[in-house]
């Protein structure tokens, strides 16, 4: 019964945490994604996080120019919607030797992954970086290429669905419940063990008192 009691207590703690999560995490500013006019993302900085862990604002995940220098700042403007997602026009200070390949922006939905409201500052960009024809030619010639021109591209937004922090917390609560259960069972077994050598001690006592 004690074991079941500890599991019930652990579940109640988890429920209370979920109900009060907004207050515990400090909430954060809630904004409507469609009303975000522009975002500026920086290399080396991280997004804000409420339901999930912060991630890099800019993350290059591949491409033929993956090993080249990355843009330090990317600016994106909201240019409307395709009926499903917000469309963005993005600019980066890059040489014409490079171009963006695949682009994916993710923003954390405020209450759930598909929420139309997002957490302010939670948007990040994953992209691939490729050489243009001019860049390939310069690579073959061993020429240096740097960042001095703006490169534009469009991409749509996608809400982040990272729920690892909730899963980790659930595992911690479950582990605590199991440990408390084992400790309770161990204590119960110890109290049920009969004392040893009791007859031997009684016989010693009677021999001492006899004439």
Automatic annotation (TrEMBL):
Compartments where located: Endoplasmic reticulum membrane
Residues spanning the signal sequence: 1-23
Source organism: Ciona intestinalis
UniProt keyword Calcium present: yes
Keyword Calcium: yes
Protein name in UniProt: Store-operated calcium entry-associated regulatory factor
Annotated family: Belongs to the SARAF family.
Upper lineage: Eukaryota, Metazoa, Chordata, Tunicata, Ascidiacea
Keywords assigned by UniProt, alphabetized: Calcium, Calcium transport, Endoplasmic reticulum, Ion transport, Membrane, Signal, Transmembrane, Transmembrane helix, Transport
